[in-house]
């Protein structure tokens, strides 16, 4: 809590000065001359480390811990880092100044006609890393996974990064295979005319484990990453490759879906929150699909007329979402922008031009 309070105080103090920052130094980047010693790539967290201490060692200024955190969003809580976590820094070296004689160019006016188009850029998925690493969505038939954490070499109850554990698997695995460690979260229901039908379950990822060997049907493994404490009976499923570059896609075909779920059963959602929607792979969606969220137009009575006359108001856009975990008939999405509260039942459509 103290660290979070420090964040707010620092942002309030420094925000006016950001207008005059070096135009060539992006937020989160570190200039080489800010460091007092070479920073290892990566820095591997040791027992007792804090971001405050790491900043003191390499910047000689503990309050620059925020520069480290800005580049390592996989650390979801800066108060909690674990031994074995990897810390990376993008260090910018000032370019050498090269004097160049100005070229003389004769400009000729011309008109270029091009159809209007949306820029579909490649974006660095580190902005979505937390959501991609920690969230998933599985079919109700898959909630048991394909195995579980059995025990550890030293008979402890809770495990973290680099710990050696034993695994029980329901299907064959080979040394080097990687599995997500998860716990099943809230169920997601799809409202239909026949009532609410289960569409799947949110999954909370606890970390990843890699198989090292097998003996007498029991697998040995090493925990590669841990987002929180891992325990016996936590479930396993095969890890999908992580794509750190996501190309945005703007579906243009007819799509019509609904918000089924707001994480933690919240009443409303806004930017940065997780939703479940009833559109998926069968509707042409994939990771990176961008969609709009709309409030349904209200039915109102037009008071001008003597006889009761009703009008349906237009739908109003309240936000945009990006698909992060598509399944056949449903998807987990991240709210990337919102102009108002998003509610369960709101309409999901392709963005209107």
Please characterize this protein's 3D structure.
With 353 residues, the protein is mainly beta. The protein folds into three domains: 2-92, LysM domain (Membrane-bound Lytic Murein Transglycosylase D, Chain A); 128-242, no CATH class; 248-349, Thrombin, subunit H (Beta Barrel). It is 10% helix and 37% strand. It contains four helices and 25 strands. The strands form eight sheets. A six-stranded antiparallel beta barrel has the order 7-9-12-11-10-14. A six-stranded antiparallel barrel has the order 16-18-23-22-19-25. The protein has a two-stranded parallel sheet with strand order 1-4. A hairpin with a 4-residue loop joins β22 and β23. The chain is globular, with a radius of gyration of 25 Å. The two termini are 44 Å apart. Residues 1-5, 11-25 and 117-125 have low confidence and may be disordered.
Shape: globular
Mean pLDDT: 79
How widely separated are the two ends?
44 Å
What is the N-to-C succession of helices and strands? HEEHHEEEHEEEEEEEEEEEEEEEEEEEE
Share of helical residues: under 10%
Counted beta strands: 25
């Amino acid at each position: 809590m103290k660290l979070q309070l420090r964040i707010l105080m620092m942002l309030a103090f420094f925000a006016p000065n950001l207008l005059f920052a070096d135009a060539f130094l992006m937020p989160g980047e570190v200039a080489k001359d800010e460091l007092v010693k070479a920073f290892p790539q990566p820095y591997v967290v040791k027992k007792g480390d804090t971001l405050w201490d790491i900043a003191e060692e390499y910047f000689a200024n503990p309050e620059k811990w925020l520069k480290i955190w800005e580049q390592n969003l996989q650390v979801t809580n800066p108060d909690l880092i674990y031994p074995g976590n990897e810390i990376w820094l993008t260090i910018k070296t000032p370019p050498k100044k090269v004097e160049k004689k100005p070229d003389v160019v004769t400009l000729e006016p011309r008109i270029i006609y091009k159809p209007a188009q949306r820029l579909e850029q490649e974006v660095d998925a580190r902005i979505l890393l937390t959501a991609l690493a920690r969230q998933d969505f599985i079919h109700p038939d898959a909630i048991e996974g394909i195995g579980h954490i059995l025990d550890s070499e030293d008979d402890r109850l809770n495990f973290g990064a680099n710990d050696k554990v034993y695994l029980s698997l329901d299907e064959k695995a080979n040394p080097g295979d990687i599995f997500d460690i998860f716990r099943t979260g809230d169920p997601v229901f799809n409202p239909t005319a026949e009532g609410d039908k289960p569409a799947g379950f949110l999954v909370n990822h606890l970390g990843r484990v890699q198989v090292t060997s097998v003996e007498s049907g029991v697998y040995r493994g090493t925990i590669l990453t841990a987002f929180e404490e891992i325990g016996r009976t936590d479930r396993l499923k095969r890890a999908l490759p992580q794509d750190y570059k996501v190309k945005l896609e703007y579906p243009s075909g007819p799509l019509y879906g609904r918000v089924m779920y707001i994480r933690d059963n919240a009443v409303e959602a806004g930017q940065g929150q997780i939703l479940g929607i009833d559109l998926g792979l069968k509707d042409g969606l994939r990771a990176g699909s961008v969609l709009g969220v709309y409030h349904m137009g209200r039915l109102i009575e037009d008071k001008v007329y003597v006889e009761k006359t009703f009008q349906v108001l237009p739908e109003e856009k309240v936000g945009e979402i990006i698909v992060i975990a598509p399944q056949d008939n449903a998807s987990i999405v991240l709210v990337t922008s919102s102009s108002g509260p998003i509610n369960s039942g709101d309409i999901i459509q392709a963005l209107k031009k």
